[in-house]
Queue: 4 jobs
Job 1
Amino acid sequence: MTHVSPARERGVVLIFTLIVLLIMTIGAVALLRSMNTSLTSAGNLAFRHDLVNQGEQAISNVLQSVQTGALATGTTADVPSSNYYAATLDTNAQGVPTVLLTRTAPSGMTAGDITGATSDVKIRYVVDRLCNAAGAASAASCVQFVANPLGQKALPTPGIPAPSATVYRLSVRVTGPRNTQIFLQTTFTKPD
């Protein structure tokens, strides 16, 4: 009977195994960091979406005021109790009225901030008429929407002018937890 001695192990398999294990560990760490970034981004988007939804409360309040409240009549002059200005406000490069960029309410804005769904969410808004100056609205001094309900190029009845409506801009700033801020802006019309 012949006795065969075992072959000497050189440890090559161990080195390859350690290299593969190192590569798998690096991949797992990269995947974990990627998941954390994705979760943070998803949380930020949900947070922003919540603030937008809460900001719509100001839109609802202003439209109610335009229909039956303080802004239903007499919008040719400023109405400080409703944060309304009869002339176009100064804006920054992004089109946000500068009165919304200060921490405290400007002296002309007497309507207080609206508290959101939680006490750490504050909603501030301002409405301005897109006119050069206060007073009666006219096509020469205001941005106006001319209604043409049929979409025709010519008016249906010659000599009768189409109804017009002055354009108003509603700008909203929502300040949330950790002083995060979002700005919303919309326009609406009101018949002259």
Job 2
Amino acid sequence: MSLGSMGAERTDIAAVMFDFGGVIADGPFEAFARYERSNGLPDGFVRGLNATNHHDNAWARLERNEVGFDEFCDLFEAEAAAAGGGLDARELMASLSGTMRPEMVEAVRRCADRFSTALLTNNFLRPDTVPGSADAARSAGMTAEMDEVLGLFDVVVESSRVGVRKPDPRFYMLACEALRIEPSQAVFLDDLGVNLKPARELGMLTIKVESADSALAELESVLGLPLR
């Protein structure tokens, strides 16, 4: 249960922080499921790989920019084979896309009028031919939309650039330090409970995004601000 579900307006909130995939844009899980269905893999196979040894597996190392894309593909395919399945990492990664959620973009825009805003995203640097990252999105013709969204944030913290990723507490502190706030002055939205737990332990108010409507209702209650 997120703290935001208590429903009381918080007058001490100074900043609103958002995850990207699964919050502002569609996350990768639907693409994983499509790939699994098309390639005869069990449901949840790819998510299971990413949840195993989640601090140091191939995906985590890619998001911290500790390995290049080609090395990641080799490592990820080896992890899949060890788990009893076969996959083509390049094909899987090429299937990822992040369609923007207009209602969430509008909420960020309205938050930015009244509060400091930050984007906290685990991401990775990939060849331009592979969609998904901000740089790749620009090369794929999403320049205006992506630039508009990124421009709504006072601070953008990307795991691939800072070498730290959620759920490491240091990641959240980088955003707080950049905004010059205490964690207790922030509300943070993410679609994964594992990423919300350390934020909550630091003192942030947290909202789990299971649907845009329910998350925005919680955030409106906390901020006392209409977001739709």
Job 3
Amino acid sequence: MDGEGFSIDKRLATAIIRDSINASLTVTAISPLHGGMINRVEEWQTDGNPPSIVAKVSPEKDRRDFFDEYESLRWYRSQTSFPVPEPYACVSETKYFEGSFLLMQKVKGSNLGQVHLTANGMRSFQEQLADVLIDLHNHTRRNYGSALQAKGKNRWLDIFAPQIESNFSKMKEHFDPHRRDTVSKMLDHLDEWLPEFGLPTLVHGDIWATNIMVDDANPDMPSITAFLDSHARFAEVEYELAYLRIFHTADETFFSRYTRCHPLLEGFERRCLVYWLNTMMLHVWLFGTGYLQACEQLVDKIARL
């Protein structure tokens, strides 16, 4: 995990927040937070306001993804009603530390993977999730790409094709020759698998259990309090919907409610296979071969079509 091998003490954390947030604050306690698969995530408790700060921490200088997330959070909060934490500061290479910090609001609740909901509570959660994404996906524009930049790409494949090709190149040696050939042929005809028919739609892009904060004080009536790891971008909306399915974040209750406003287009199930394969290949080279069997199964399904 990025962030291992170094430590942040209360003195250093205090110096950083005094320079970037509030000159009168003192960090009184530091504790790790669950869920960060790429970066170390900590809670810094203070003696003032805000009483708690979430800190993403990296020993690397100038983490562009930290700056992008900081600006994305600001953009979401100013341009949409999509619930995300308030960003406080993005700090890199201070006089105290050469790494990077993203400091943000500590929102109420726990991530979806940690909460305990009743059956009624899960249905309520799925309906809330649908309502939030119905609203988010009402935001469209003329081109694809970062919401932080006015200009983008006119074709979705100009963004997605390089992504899936890169993921394939980084892990293809794990496939046998037959499966490598199947994926190569699919990539050669990607415009047939993913025809251009949608509008560039505002998406989160990484919605799964760990990135959804839920207040479960009442397990029958939970409330979504925020979405984490947000990078505002305009994409083909099926990219988001497929991702919701691959880790079982959204169920039939979600899709029943969501599709009343945003119906699924014919062939969605087929196109999901491409998006799922992209996600699983990414996970193989990021996190290891534990995801390889899922990749192989998806390639075999694609080969049969």
Job 4
Amino acid sequence: MHTTISSEKGLKELTTLGLEANRNKYALQWKKDGKKVAGLLCSYIPEEIVHAAGVLPWHVFGTWQAGTPHANEWRPADTCLYCNHVLEALLTDRLDFLDAVVGTDWDQELVRLWDVWRYVEKTPTTLIIDVPIINTDTAVKFLAQQFHKFIGEMEKLAGRPITDDDLMRSIAVLERTRHLVKRLYELRNAETPAFTGTEMLGLTTAAMLMSKEEFNDRIEALLPYLEKRKIPAEKSRPRLLVSSDRLDNPGHLAVIEEAGCVVAMDDLDTGSRHYWRHVELSSASSPTLRQEIVSALARRYLMQPASPRMMNWQDQVDQVVNWVRDYNIQGVIELPQGFSRYREFRANFFRNKLEEAGIPIMSYRREYIVSNVGQVKTRVGAFIEMIESKA
């Protein structure tokens, strides 16, 4: 009994780390130990390079408070809600511990957020990486050039060189994280999953906020318990997949599951997409080890299961269809964040292709914060009834 209680407590500590009151815990301790923290604004930023510099790769989440009055002075309210809530956190001094912030051109909303971030000069180092929207060989070479430059910038931040051994060690640590997280996803594939989708998002975001080594050790210690754990059987059906971007608040999934289902799989850049692809090294393809390491990282990040900002829309649908089949999913819920232009552009294609594959889908435009709870439960409840009536 003592072991079960301890394991459940340990699981809860991880699944609640992303809550606004808890998420700075490891970053602040890292700073107290005399080390540096880099805030990452996108899942296309190579964590291995940050880690190899001895810097904590810490993914930036926005404030979960309802209003963004300070951000509204810089950005219209009817723009990317994630960016507005992140900017609100920055302008209210909640991110003052960051030594660097790293953005990408995921979309122009994120670029504009980075512009303001640099202008207000609240973070000593502000960096941005250009990421192609296609995943051709030429695009991989371009991204590798970007990563080479990024290594140089992280060396400046760290005040020391990043060696090939540093990079290889960091790749090994991050690969261990990915293998462990994919093991957690395997436990969701059981007829009665080991944990809810709400808990799973808590785990995947915890790995984005704490030392990868500590996360790995804690998950490995919890695995024997998690492999035996089951959610109540009555809460394990129907099995749904949720698709969205920049969804870091497990409360969104909790509302869906409270309507009478389980989120047994996800298509999220804070979940499956962030961990699915591995780094594959092949010394025969490049003249030096450094070039092969950086090329392998570029391939891994550019060819991970894609967000709608990438142009391989059919591949994105195919990935979701495969997950639906592999995880015995009965329906897909798409949660486009308000003013997420790329997902809006892809919406009809995504819906039509899933319907052609015989997969029920519903879409609900969400806020960044959890809101309209009653409306969401009503919509999800009706969707569940429709699925069950066709079963």
